[in-house]
Amino acid sequence: MHYMDQRKALLVLLLTATALYAWAGPAQNVIFMIGDGMGLAHVTMAHYANGAKLNMETMAFSGLATTHCLDSLVTDSAAAGTALATGCKTDSGMIATTPDLKPRLTILEALDKRARKTGLVTTTTISHATPACFAAHVSQRGNEEEIASQLLGSGVDVMLGGGLSYFLPVSSGGRRKDGQDLIEIAKSKGYTVVTDRSGLLRCRSDKVLGLFGKSYLSFELDRNPAREPSLALMTQKAVELLSGTETGFFLMVEGGRIDHAAHSNDIAGVLHDTLMFDKAVGIALDFARKNKDTLVLVTADHETGGLGLSSGKYEIRPDVPSGMSRTCEFIATQINQDLSNVRKVFEFFAGITDLTDEEVASLKKSPDKKSEYSSVNLAGITAIVNKRTMIGWTTGSHSACMVPVMAEGPGAELFTGFMDNTELPKKIARACGFSL
Question: CATH number for the 310-390 domain, one of 1.10.150.130, 1.10.260.40, 1.10.60.40, 3.40.50.150?
Fold first, then answer.
């Protein structure tokens, strides 16, 4: 085909797709999926490890978003979550609140006012920065006890994640110093409370509070599948519980621990949590492709780690982290203090059999280095894995890189090109037929 003919055919295809989505009318359901810390390199590594296109890569429209907040070009999750939830920039650490402490209406709250059912799903604590930004308003993200109270008072229909300790008083093994037992309060408000995978599978309630750990849920590689539900299962169950009504629903799903693994420069944790997040995306897309009034939007709040898919040679080895059975964080807990079992541990959990004496020595933790890992230096473990994966990291924090945006469903054509993160909730509102 001639070059100009190809361009014409592509233009016709794009216009046809745009017309089809416009014809579909306003979005009745919205599934907003956020890979915390998931940059383009994280997605690319997952693509290569997967050996084929990811579910998110099959979506009809795509673009890129900037992520800076008011007080820094490198945002934290609270300010980024506020932008994604409210369309408003704020300072680091603030939850759906302006720097002068004025609460901002969130897209979840706006749709709740329009009789949509609502849900929040995460692998972090349900009171963590990203989910909090959609249904709570506080000046400090660390005040998770207050956030938990506000989430319960918000009326969100389905909440699934970790963070049980923020719902229980100190006397019951929780962190609440006010003595309140939010679990009992949740039950009095009509919530069914579940705390494990089997309880979630059995649940048929219209209102569900699922708290599957005292703190964060496990990294996907370290998860006990018999007890703790995967992000994909939580997404599937949330969609099941929220759908089937004439009014529609809004669901935010966060792959929250991609970020935590990237902070540690743990490529195995990053890879497997990104792949699980993509499985959750696949579940959302399956629903949307059967229910044409559903908009699915995928993005990240920021990039974490400054992940570079090269360490100097023209090669990377995604098979190294792909073949690991545990995260570097877990491996750190299995090595004896005298390092006597280090080679066996690396062989068993990471498939690495060629440790050098210098690498073994690098795992010995400095006596004055404080860490939850009493035996070894976690950074030494990640360095060994990253060297064999042939990748590098620029930071153990966030970066200022733009993040991917992918969309499919009614209004998906709005999410193309370059945009700022504040535009996303406004475009969601527009896709639903109103202004935020």
Answer: 1.10.60.40
